[in-house]
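Many introductory courses stop at the sequence. We go one step further.
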Amino acid sequence: MQIEVWHNKKIGDMSASFPDDFELVAVVMGDDIDRAFAMTNHLEGFWWLNSGVLRIGDKHHRSTSIGDVLVQLSTGRKYRCDFLGWTEI
């Protein structure tokens, strides 16, 4: 199981269109979106150094944040990070 992490190019813009306004930045092993969120945040260092995280591309990425989208590949379900929790889109 894997989760794709898509960062909103219009940071924090909740009206951004998925996937056009987004960039795929990582694939996280597992199927738990809360864990994937934590694994793609700079907590104790660069998130792409976390075990089970595959960074897409070679540039430095910001932490996953409000307005970003996570996709559970096993189900195809898409979730936008909201101000409190997740909204399925």
